[in-house]
Design a protein that fits this description.
Blueprint (H helix, E strand, L loop, with lengths): L2 E5 L5 H14 L1 E4 L5 E3 L2 E6 L2 E10 L2 E8 L5
Parallel strand pairs: 1-6
Antiparallel strand pairs: 2-3, 4-5, 5-6
């Protein structure tokens, strides 16, 4: 299995990888076109760096996970 992780802000790579791991462990739960199953389209996590959002996209033939904060931390 090949995946891409796109961290779009200053989120630590270790934390981003941990959140993506949780999404992968939950399995392919969203049904798309022609009944094909995908990882959850959007998952939020409350972390010590703030609230993170993990978005999932199909990137060519691999899965792509986009990680970014949902709001600015004080």
């Amino acid at each position: 299995m090949k995946i891409h992780i796109d961290i779009q802000d200053d989120t630590s790579p270790t934390l981003a990888l941990e959140c993506v791991r949780h999404v992968i462990n939950d399995g392919r739960v969203s049904q798309g076109e022609h009944g094909k199953m995908y990882y959850c389209w959007a998952t939020t996590f409350t972390t010590n760096e703030g609230e993170l959002l993990v978005l999932t996209r199909q990137y060519r033939k691999s899965d792509c996970f986009i990680v970014r904060k949902t709001k600015k931390t004080e």
